[in-house]
Amino acid sequence: MSRTIGILGGTGPEGSGLAYRWARAGEEILIGSRDAQRAEEAAKSLRERIGASAKIAGADNSAVVAQCDVVVLTVPFAGQAALLKQLKSHWKPGTIVIDTTVPLAAAVGGAATQMLGVWQGSAAEQARALLPSSVALAAAFQNLSAELLAADQPVECDVLICSDDEKAKQAASELAVKIPGARAVNGGKLENARIVESLTALLIGLNIRYKVHGTGIRFTGLPAA
């Protein structure tokens, strides 16, 4: 089935890293930004890196939402609510949104190893409250290192996927296994995203403590995929 994966915030480290991995796997990618020219420049840079086979273009955020059936949200937490409010009237019914947002305290000048309290419980649940009911939502990819995504080696990390919608969970799982070394793990209901998001702060702390980059998570004892 032909599809285009939209990435809102695709000019940032996490978004561009996911775009790179998925484009290399043959997916068609549309990078979104507030500035369409900036989005196209990011797309051009990735095309040059991957080669002529890469199917990557850029557009402003509203155009991405209007054109794509699967949209990945990779903006910082500080901008998540404002962006979703701005785009509320642009979503197509049936769109699947995959939210990667983590409410780190760094968003308000605090430490990246600490979490902000979110009234709804998690960034993903805040996104659910701000999205139209006709849009499905999954939370995933919060624990993947942007630095590793931008590189070429396998990521060696499980991707926990939390959602109350099975189609959204399936779409996120399909994209997870397109990344070499990644494994999709069913994380249960969307409310469990509050646990998954907090793991990111823990991983950042481990990176600092052990002076490494790209610490990931693996779960043992699960059946083979």
Description:
The chain has an 8-stranded mixed beta sheet with strand order 3-2-1-4-5-6-7-8, with helices on both faces. The protein starts with a strand and ends in a 15-residue tail after the last helix. It has one domain: NAD(P)-binding Rossmann-like Domain (Rossmann fold, 3-Layer(aba) Sandwich). The chain is of the alpha/beta class and 225 residues long. It is built from 8 helices and 8 strands. Helix 4 packs parallel to helix 5 (123-130).
Q: TL;DR?
A:
By secondary structure, the chain is α/β, with parallel strands linked by helices. It contains 8 helices and 8 strands, in the order βαβαβαβαβαβαβαβα.
Secondary structure blueprint with pairings:
Elements: E1 4-8, H1 13-24, E2 28-33, H2 36-50, E3 56-60, H3 61-67, E4 70-73, H4 77-87, E5 96-99, H5 123-130, E6 136-139, H6 146-149, E7 157-163, H7 166-176, E8 182-188, H8 193-210
Parallel strand pairs: 1-2, 1-4, 2-3, 4-5, 5-6, 7-8
Antiparallel strand pairs: 6-7
Helix pairs in contact: 4-5
Attribute tags:
single chain; 225 residues; alpha/beta; Rossmann fold; globular
CATH architecture: 3-Layer(aba) Sandwich
Residue runs with pLDDT of under 50 for 5 or more positions: none
Structural class: alpha/beta
The CATH top-level class label: Alpha Beta
CATH homologous superfamily placement: NAD(P)-binding Rossmann-like Domain
Count of DSSP-assigned helices: 8
Give the tally of β-strands.
Answer: 8
